[in-house]
Amino acid sequence: MNELALFAGAAMKTHWKSSQYAREKAKAWRLANPEKVKEHRIKNRQKNYRQEIVRKYDVDFTWFDDQFEKQDKSCAACKKPLDWTDKQNTPHVDHCHQSGKVRAILCNRCNTVLGLCLDDKELFKNLIGYLECHG
């Protein structure tokens, strides 16, 4: 093995150890400062989520902003106002789990219900029938 390969291997090992150390140190800080972590997450929820939707759903910020305005900043399903500071009413991008196509913006509750029911219209009909019978 040549000297350059040995140096590169040693440098990578050192980098891995230092990045592992940084992760462990950051984790220890988060565990010691839960209130500051919570405050930071609430403060940056919108920014972080917007970055995530670009990565996850391949939509850009303009789609999200346009859709948010088109829906009057409300959930497309239940029509409740969406609010970045309230976890239950935080906006979530809804998408078809089969095609991956983005549909609209929902609140956390409506998005969770759709996901748990696997977008199964028959199941929703059965649930409505159940509620009408046992409401």
Overview of the molecule:
The protein is mostly helical. It is built from 5 helices and 2 strands. It has helices spanning 3-32, 34-57, 61-70, 108-116, 121-134, and strands at residues 92-95, 102-106. A two-stranded antiparallel ribbon has the order 1-2. A hairpin with a 6-residue loop joins strand 1 (92-95) and strand 2. The mean pLDDT is 87.
Which radius of gyration do the C-alpha atoms yield? 22 Å
Please provide the ordered H/E string of secondary-structure elements.
HHHEEHH
Low-confidence stretches: none
End-to-end separation in angstroms reads 75 Å
Helix content: 55-70%
The total of beta strands comes to: 2
* Spatial order of the strands forming the largest sheet: 1-2
Sketch the major β-sheet. Answer: 2 strands, antiparallel
Q: Roughly what fraction of the amino acids lie in strands?
A: 5-15%
Q: Regarding quaternary structure, how should these chains be classified?
A: single chain
Mean pLDDT score: 87
Number of helices in the DSSP assignment: 5
Structural class: mainly alpha
Tell me, briefly, the overall form: elongated
List the helices and strands and how they pair.
Layout: H1 3-32, H2 34-57, H3 61-70, E1 92-95, E2 102-106, H4 108-116, H5 121-134
Antiparallel strand pairs: 1-2
Produce a short descriptive summary:
Helix content is 64%, strand content 7%. The protein has 135 residues and is mainly α.
